[in-house]
Task: inverse folding
């Protein structure tokens, strides 16, 4: 009977030893060092030269659009003033007809200008979205090429990194690489 008892104890010890060995292997595998860094998204995007150039380009386009809008507005005001002077000598029916036509013209001009403004905004957004996408791809590839397990992003608006040692902040490295790789057209 003691022989069977010893055999059971040996099996139990081997089982427990196997479980402990498995736990040790899992624990050591989980303890592999991971290379982690973070970047300040706001700094990278706001100081990236391509984004700055796009903003400057659209500031110019916006200024031209504002000039065009002002010019059309002044021309329409003159037309409206001219209508007021002429309407005094018109019959009620003719004045109403001319007034309705002027109102339709104003509405069409407003719609056209609103459409042009939307087109300008959409073009700007598309270019900025493209820049953001290229930055994300660059950071992803940088991480892969340099053996990072994670590169976290943070900004003032959305702070996913509450604290990080300065040596893990690769914002300036990424920004410098992006700016040096950017070729202004």
Result:
């Amino acid at each position: 009977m003691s022989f069977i008892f010893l055999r059971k104890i040996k099996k139990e010890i081997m089982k427990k030893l196997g479980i402990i060995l498995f736990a040790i292997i899992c624990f050591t595998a989980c303890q592999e060092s991971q290379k982690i860094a973070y970047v300040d998204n706001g700094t990278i995007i706001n100081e990236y030269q391509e984004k700055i150039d796009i903003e400057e380009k659209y500031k110019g386009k916006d200024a031209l659009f504002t000039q065009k809008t002002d010019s059309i507005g002044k021309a329409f005001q003159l037309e409206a003033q001219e209508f007021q002077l002429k309407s005094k000598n018109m019959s009620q029916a003719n004045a109403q007809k001319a007034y309705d036509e002027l109102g339709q013209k104003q509405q069409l001009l407003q719609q056209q200008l609103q459409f042009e403004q939307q087109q300008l905004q959409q073009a700007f957004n598309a270019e900025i979205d493209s820049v953001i996408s290229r930055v994300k791809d660059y950071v992803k590839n940088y991480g892969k090429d340099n053996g990072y397990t994670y590169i976290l992003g943070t900004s003032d608006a959305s702070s996913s990194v509450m604290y990080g040692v300065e040596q893990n902040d690769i914002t300036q490295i990424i920004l410098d690489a992006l700016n040096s790789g950017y070729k202004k057209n």
The first strand starts at residue 36 and ends at 40. The chain has two domains: 1-32, 33-181.
